[in-house]
Design goal:
Blueprint lengths: L14 E2 L11 H32 L4 H29 L1 H22 L2 H29 L2 H32 L4 H4 L1 H15 L4 E2 L8 H24 L4 H21 L15 H31 L4 H7 L1 H21 L1 H18 L13 H23 L7 H41 L4 H6 L4 H5 L11 H40 L3 H7 L1
Antiparallel strand pairs: 1-2
Helix pairs in contact: 1-2, 1-4, 1-5, 1-7, 2-3, 2-4, 2-8, 2-15, 3-4, 3-7, 4-15, 5-11, 5-12, 5-14, 8-9, 8-15, 10-13, 10-14, 10-15, 10-18, 12-13, 12-14, 13-14, 13-18, 14-15, 15-18
Length: 530
């Protein structure tokens, strides 16, 4: 039967855990440092792979569809296992499943570099996703079990800082490795990080699990949730290729939503649910989950087309492009602990709207970008985006995991990580579709406006996909004047798509700020619950 309230122990005392062995395993800050290694490895991997994809495709003679599965296989496996990983950690031991996740992720990463075929890369990427699903939610579950409520917000802020910095450093690290070594090293780099994470984790992480007794594991709930998430994420990642109004996309998403609805209905009728629906009785937790998805919609979607702009339109190398986004990394470094401090003092009702408004300002600031804009117009939006993402990540993580009972810390971490991944997948797919649509509508006009003969401009409509990625459809045998006109017109068509994408994203950020301000009560709500 479903519960009618969210019980919230004031300390982790409701947990069952073996006695701490010495000072190492009694120090919550060492626990934070230990989980930071695993978190850094996963987040760095997610952003360096995007840089390596072109080289993977060239070296392994992969088609575009096969190359897409390098990313999609990971996303699907991760989305299907995150909440399961948190539940397993809550029930059988968060330390155990965190370390299993780190070890498996490390081995799968090494296997990708050794595979020698695109099929092997895709298969081991899926395995990476499974182990990432064990690792990620238990990082937050471990922090929730060892930090008292008053210090949990700061711990989440540092957790968010590690995540943001690893994501932002990915293009630089990936660019250096791909340019100066080979694409395999993008995956091999996880091996030393993983070994450090395992050794340090064994030494300092305390075991913690919920005092659940001999309850039955919710297998039907697991199947419904996994199938529902798989269908939704598959529909999202294929939407840009199939078309958002196609029968395939709508059918996948609709089927997934129906399965998730059935899952929610079923979870209210079992004694020991996989995802307790009582968690959503906390309005702060529910709003935090929505804002988490929107936060990563913005971050991953915007970074994706920013890197296309810097590399394909402006002509920077991956390393040069990564260096130019350093203001985003540095701003995230500052924003995460700052957001945690503000959340700790004033609650997420202040921090989340403020972070979303900063992201809106960043998006609207990108409306000034053109094909030849100076760097002075670029770094302010990077700073605003980094500040906004870092603040929202701290506040939303605290709202989700901090508003769940300690015994459900892993499940709440899985919920947070699942919404994060779905939001990121939506951001990349939706914004690429918006850019593609706008390019298709304006390419011919921009080409003729730049001086390309109308007959030639109409013939270039087949190159819309390339232009939507920031690539001008020119060849070496084109006359210099025609080549310059094609580059100018294609660049302007791409910028039209970017401007549409940032307007839509900016409006979503404003709506997110309104939702966070209206949907979360004052700090007193959480204090009373604790």
């Amino acid at each position: 039967m479903s519960s009618t309230s969210v019980d919230r122990p004031t300390t982790p005392a409701a947990e069952t855990a073996p006695p701490a062995s010495g000072r190492l395993r009694s120090n919550p800050w060492l626990t934070l440092l230990a989980v930071a290694f695993g978190l850094f490895m996963v987040q760095l991997d997610g952003s360096v792979v995007a840089i390596a994809n072109p080289e993977i495709g060239s070296d392994l003679h992969a088609s575009t569809a096969e190359l897409q599965w390098v990313t999609n296989a990971y996303l699907l496996a991760l989305a299907a296992t995150l909440i399961l990983g948190g539940k397993l950690g809550d029930r059988f031991g968060r330390r155990t499943y965190y370390l299993v996740g780190v070890a498996g992720f490390t081995l799968a990463s090494t296997a990708i570099g050794l595979s020698g075929s695109i099929e092997g890369v895709v298969a081991f990427r899926a395995l990476q996703g499974v182990f990432g699903g064990l690792l990620m939610p238990n990082t937050l579950g471990l922090l929730r079990s060892v930090f008292p409520p008053k210090k949990f917000g700061m711990a989440v802020g540092i957790w968010a800082m590690v995540s943001a910095v690893a994501t932002a450093l990915g293009p630089i690290v990936g660019g250096l490795l791909v340019e100066h070594v080979n694409w395999e090293t993008v995956f091999y780099i996880n091996a030393p990080i993983g070994v450090i994470a395992i050794v340090f984790g064994i030494l300092v992480l305390p075991e913690s699990r919920s005092a659940t007794g001999r309850e039955r594991f919710d297998i039907p709930g697991l199947v419904l949730l996994a199938l529902g998430l798989l269908a939704v994420v598959f529909g999202v990642v294929k939407g840009e290729t199939w078309g958002w109004a196609s029968a395939g996309t709508l059918g996948c998403v609709a089927a997934g939503l129906v399965l998730l609805f059935v899952f929610g209905w079923y979870e209210t009728r079992v004694a020991h649910p996989l995802l307790p629906m009582r968690l959503f009785r906390s309005r702060a937790l529910t709003v935090g989950a929505i804002i988490t998805a929107l936060n990563f919609f913005v971050m991953l979607g915007v970074i994706f087309f920013v890197m296309l702009y810097l590399q394909n339109v402006r002509g920077f190398t991956p390393v040069e492009a990564g260096v130019r986004t350093l203001p985003l990394s540095l701003a995230s470094l500052v924003a995460s602990p700052l957001g945690a401090a503000l959340t700790q003092r004033f609650g997420p009702r202040l921090t989340m709207p403020l972070g979303m408004l900063l992201q809106a300002a960043s998006c609207f600031g990108m409306l000034t970008w053109q094909t030849d804009s100076s760097y002075a117009t670029m770094w302010p939006p990077f700073v605003a985006l980094g500040l906004g993402v870092g603040m929202v990540m701290s506040a939303s993580s605290d709202a989700i995991v901090g508003n769940a009972p300690v015994r459900d810390g892993g499940v709440a971490g899985g919920l947070q990580a699942t919404t994060l991944q779905i939001g990121g997948a939506l951001g990349t797919s939706v914004l690429v579709s918006l850019i593609s649509g706008k390019v298709g509508a304006t390419l011919t006009g921009e080409l003729t406006g730049a001086g390309v003969p109308p007959a030639v401009a109409h013939g270039m409509r087949e190159a819309e996909d390339a232009v939507a990625m920031g690539v001008a459809p020119v060849s070496g045998d084109m006359p210099a004047g025609l080549r310059a006109a094609v580059v100018e017109g294609s660049g302007q068509a791409f910028m039209n798509g970017v401007h549409l994408a940032v307007v839509v994203t900016g409006v979503l950020c404003v709506l997110g700020a309104v939702l966070a301000a209206a949907g979360i009560r004052r700090r007193a709500e959480r204090s009373a619950d604790h």
